Structure formats: structure tokens, C-alpha cells
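// run 5 | inverse folding | seed 20
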């Protein structure tokens, strides 16, 4: 199903209208005169949307896969094939294979020139007869970043590349057709169902970290243990050349940075998504929907505004998650659904995240912001390897979030303290609340959905939730009584209070009487809050499990947010909170 959907995408986007050519970035154009003299090396680099210089893309002859050994590509290749030397100073000017690689490239030019008699190809042969490797290296020195692709321009043609000349195009198409027709088509393509001769090595997929720099293979059989019945390479899963080129072209397009059809989940995992017809443009904004809650309003926009309502769109939606490892592309996850269903799941995801924020302009709970809020120093490299992938899958499928997400949020709360600063505390509370809300609703966690709310719920009698509220009140009472203690009760006791309440709370409640005595009017408001919270609690639990620790953290956050809201929202009979420290 994955390959079928990708092939359909390639044809929908018109990527296979000219199957003998492919998009490839070419960093340098070699301009040659009719007599073969070199006129210029012309870099093609242009700033992208982020201002970074990137080589320009061109339609070039589709290359064969370099499985092992030297293999020259037709008219467009790296410097060691086109010029006969390495253009990367770190790798040295010459390599043992450069001379052979240049000769292989020149042989392709010579064969094409003899077959077509094309004057541009004849000029290239004169170019190679005129310049040796050392002279070309001296002329190119410092003009082009290393590792780029090189193509030729015949000067009388202006900007037209040599491989775009009609005679050269026809020659290349004929060569490709002859290669395909060699051998008997006595296999059935697993993608199209047509009779075919299997493509033994599929084109490389680029843009997935963890694979090799030249790209990775999604379908490959390159060791004996994977072979069966005496078949070799991809005969074990026969796919025709047109299908192989179509699905790899589709994936390479989806993985382009300039296309909004993919997001990186971690250092070596990327998620791609697309629709069958893209009638309403959903595939172009889903990455933004996952990154910012502000874009969720798009899900509710009405038809009378002339904007799409994806909640009613039955177009098919596809998502594949890929990782790279040892030159291979690994499929981590595959989803086939509808736009309407996925849009509803994304809407529900942000509903589950919704938590009160005591000030204006809360930080947007995008996927990366949420994950960074629960790891050391808020750095992306500290996100557990598979956590982002699991959360992403839960969002699109509408399934339960992994409990490892809750565990990570609670560990970070214990390590940093429950509220190091409001933005991080808010995002972490979003994570905790979402896991609890969805777990309760889907009955994967054993408690009532009514016990999880967006803002503080004074009617919630869950013991863990009330103890979280109580701990917050006790902490603020200490701060009001002492000022800025060297170590607050949150610094000293939060971890124990949220896991083993019975060992901490009797002592803290006794200490609260001392703190209240230091306040004007004996801290009446705080004592009323403590009594009200304690009223339905019949005893302090010995331990709290992971779910109850989450409720404790949510209760703490709700109480703190309620006490730190703007002054106009503070109850008139609550003078103690008007200048409460943050």
C-alpha cells in the first residue's frame, strides 16, 4: 500500500511526465566554447527561504544507482567523474579512482557524440582533449563549494544545458528504453500488477538522516540471509523500473525542505504526509497544525468564508514515518485514513492540551515545544529517540499518548522543581493534562474524565489532585511568610510529596501553622484554603502511582495558576495573593 500510494502521488504531481529525467541540484555549470576551450565555471547557488545558499535544481538525465564500484552518470556528475579530481580539499586533490572515473564519464560522452553527431558533445570531447586534470583543478580552485554536481553548457546555446539539447535528449531516452527492453518481462510488478523485468537496484531516497550521504534504499536485498529460492537482489520483491522510479521520486519530493509535506521528529526520523487528491490543501498545512495551536482555528473555518472545512473532507490521507540506518530506509509507521478523521484527531489533540495560563499570550503548544519542555535543558537532542514518533502517531490516530511521555514530564518536574518559569511550567502542564485526559476518556487510565479539567476545579475530590493543590498553597504560604527562603518546600519536598505523601504532608501542615502566624491576621485566607482542600481527604496515601502523580502535578499547576492570575481576577477577600512572588 505504501508504494502504491507513493506512485499515485508521483503521477498526480506530474513527476513522471518525463521519466528519463529527474530533479537534481547542480552546484556548478561548466561553460564550454565550440573549440572546447573553458569559458567559465558558473556557480548556481541562490539563497533559500531561510537565507542559506543552496544549489539550483535542474532536470537532469536520471542516473543509475551506484551500488558498488565506479559508475559514471550521463553528462551530470560529481567532480571526480566530470573533471577527474576531488573538489573537496579535505579529501585531497587526487584519488586512486579519479582517473578511471573521468575516463568512464568521457566514454559516455564519446558514445553519445558518435551516435548523434551533436556539435555540443563534439565540443565536450575537444574540452577533454584540451585540458588535463591539473590545469582544471587550478582553474576551479576556490570557485565552488565541494561535493556538488557539475553539468555542461555549450556557449552558443546561452543558458541551455547540453543534456537539454533535442538530439541529446532523444539519445538518452533511446538508451534508457533499450536498457528496459533487455531480458524477458516474465515477472509481475508488485505495485502495478503489470508484467515486468524487476529493477534490481532501486533509486536512492535522500533527506532521511541516518542513511548514507548518497541516500538510502527502501526496498533492498543485499545480503544472503534475505534471499529466497535462488533469486538475486530485488527479484525477491519484483518492482518494475517505472514503479521504482515513481515511488522514489515521490518520496524525494516529499522530503524536500522547500515542500511542507514532512517534519523531522528526531535526529534520524522524519514523517511524510500527503493526500490522494489534495482537494482542499490539507497536506500543505498539517505540519503547521502540529506545530502551533493557533492554526487549529483553520479546522473550524466555515464554507461561507471561502475557506476549507477539513472536518468534512473524505479525501484519503497517508502518512509514513521513516528512519535511516546503515544505508537503509526503515518504515517506522504507516497510516492510511481520511482528511476528516485526521483533522478531527488533531483538533482533539489540542483540546486535550488546553490548560489555563495566568497571563496573556500563552506559548503555543507545538509538538517540539512540548517535547523540549520535558527534557534536560530543553534541548531537542535530549528528547528520547522514539518518543516524538510515538506522540506523532498518537496525534494522527487519536490513540492514547505513551505513558513514557507522562513519566518524562514528571521526572523533569522533580528535577527542575514544579514551576521554574511559567512558559515551561505551562507546556509541561499541557503534556500532563493531555495524557491524563485522553487516558481517562479512552479508559486506559483508571479514573473518571471529570477529574481532569482545563482550569482549577474546586469540586474535584480526587485525593492526588487535592494534595497537589494543597502543596502549592503551603509553598506560597511559606514564601509570603519568609520572603525568599534559601530552599523552599518545593525545592526540598516536591518529589517526596508527589510520590509518598504520608511521609511529608503531616510535617508540612504542622509547619504551616508557624508560617501563618507570621502573616497579618494570622494568614486567615491561607488557613481557610488548607481546611477547604483537606476536608474530603480521609488520610494521606502511602504512595501515588504514575497516574496519581500526574493528577498531583496538575492540581499543583491549577492552584498556582489560579493564585497568580492578574489582580482583577483575584478575589477581593484574598489580600495575601496580591503581591505573591512568582
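// decoded
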Amino acid at each position: 500500500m505504501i508504494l502504491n500510494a507513493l506512485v499515485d502521488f508521483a503521477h498526480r504531481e506530474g513527476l513522471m511526465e518525463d521519466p528519463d529525467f529527474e530533479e537534481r541540484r547542480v552546484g556548478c555549470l561548466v561553460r564550454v566554447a565550440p573549440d572546447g576551450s573553458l569559458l567559465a565555471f558558473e556557480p548556481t547557488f541562490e539563497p533559500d527561504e531561510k537565507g542559506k545558499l543552496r544549489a539550483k535544481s535542474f532536470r537532469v538525465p536520471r542516473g543509475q544507482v551506484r551500488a558498488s564500484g565506479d559508475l559514471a552518470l550521463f553528462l551530470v556528475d560529481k567532480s571526480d567523474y566530470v573533471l577527474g579530481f576531488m573538489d573537496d580539499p579535505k579529501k585531497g586533490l587526487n584519488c586512486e579512482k579519479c582517473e578511471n572515473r573521468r575516463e568512464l564519464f568521457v566514454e559516455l560522452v564519446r558514445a553519445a557524440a558518435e551516435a548523434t553527431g551533436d556539435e555540443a558533445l563534439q565540443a565536450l570531447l575537444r574540452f577533454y582533449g584540451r585540458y588535463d586534470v591539473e590545469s582544471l583543478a587550478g582553474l576551479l580552485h576556490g570557485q565552488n563549494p565541494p561535493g556538488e554536481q557539475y553539468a555542461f553548457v555549450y556557449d552558443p546555446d546561452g543558458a541551455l544545458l547540453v543534456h537539454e539539447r533535442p538530439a541529446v535528449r532523444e539519445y538518452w531516452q533511446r538508451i534508457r528504453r533499450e536498457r528496459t527492453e533487455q531480458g524477458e518481462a516474465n515477472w509481475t510488478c508488485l505495485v502495478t500488477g503489470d508484467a515486468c523485468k524487476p529493477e534490481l537496484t532501486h533509486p536512492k531516497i535522500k533527506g532521511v538522516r541516518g542513511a548514507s550521504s548518497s541516500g538510502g534504499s527502501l526496498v533492498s536485498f543485499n545480503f544472503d540471509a534475505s534471499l529466497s529460492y535462488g533469486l538475486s537482489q530485488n527479484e525477491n520483491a519484483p518492482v518494475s523500473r517505472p514503479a521504482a522510479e515513481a515511488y522514489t521520486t515521490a518520496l524525494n519530493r516529499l522530503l524536500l525542505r522547500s515542500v511542507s509535506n514532512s517534519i523531522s521528529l528526531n535526529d534520524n526520523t522524519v514523517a511524510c504526509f500527503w493526500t490522494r487528491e489534495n482537494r482542499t490543501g490539507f497536506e500543505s498545512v498539517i505540519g503547521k497544525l502540529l506545530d502551533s495551536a493557533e492554526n487549529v482555528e483553520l479546522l473550524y473555518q466555515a464554507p461561507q468564508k471561502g475557506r476549507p472545512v477539513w472536518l468534512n473532507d473524505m479525501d484519503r490521507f497517508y502518512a509514513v514515518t521513516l528512519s535511516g540506518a546503515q544505508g537503509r530506509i526503515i518504515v517506522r509507521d504507516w497510516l492510511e485514513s481520511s482528511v476528516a478523521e485526521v483533522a478531527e484527531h488533531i483538533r482533539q489533540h489540542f483540546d486535550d492540551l488546553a490548560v489555563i495560563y495566568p497571563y496573556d499570550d500563552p506559548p503555543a503548544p507545538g509538538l517540539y515545544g512540548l517535547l523540549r519542555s520535558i527534557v534536560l535543558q530543553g534541548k531537542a537532542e535530549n528528547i528520547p529517540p522514539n518518543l516524538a514518533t510515538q506522540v506523532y502517531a498518537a496525534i494522527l490516530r487519536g490513540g492514547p499518548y505513551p505513558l513514557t511521555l507522562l513519566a518524562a514530564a514528571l521526572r523533569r518536574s522533580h528535577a527542575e522543581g514544579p514551576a521554574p518559569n511559567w512558559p515551561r511550567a505551562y507546556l509541561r502542564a499541557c503534556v500532563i493534562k493531555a495524557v491524563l485526559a485522553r487516558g481517562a476518556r479512552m479508559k486506559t487510565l483508571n479514573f473518571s474524565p471529570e477529574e481532569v479539567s482545563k482550569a482549577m476545579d474546586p469540586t474535584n475530590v480526587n485525593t492526588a489532585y487535592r494534595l497537589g493543590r494543597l502543596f502549592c498553597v503551603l509553598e506560597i504560604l511559606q514564601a509570603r511568610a519568609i520572603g525568599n527562603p534559601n530552599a523552599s518546600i518545593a525545592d526540598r519536598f516536591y518529589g517526596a510529596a508527589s510520590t509518598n505523601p504520608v511521609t511529608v504532608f503531616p510535617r508540612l501542615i504542622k509547619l504551616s501553622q508557624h508560617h501563618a502566624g507570621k502573616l497579618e491576621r494570622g494568614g486567615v485566607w491561607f488557613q481557610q484554603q488548607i481546611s477547604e482542600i483537606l476536608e474530603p481527604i480521609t488520610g494521606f496515601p502511602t504512595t501515588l502511582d504514575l497516574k496519581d502523580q500526574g493528577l498531583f502535578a496538575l492540581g499543583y499547576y491549577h492552584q498556582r495558576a489560579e493564585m497568580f492570575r492578574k489582580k482583577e481576577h483575584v478575589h477581593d477577600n484574598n489580600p495575601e495573593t496580591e503581591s505573591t512572588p512568582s
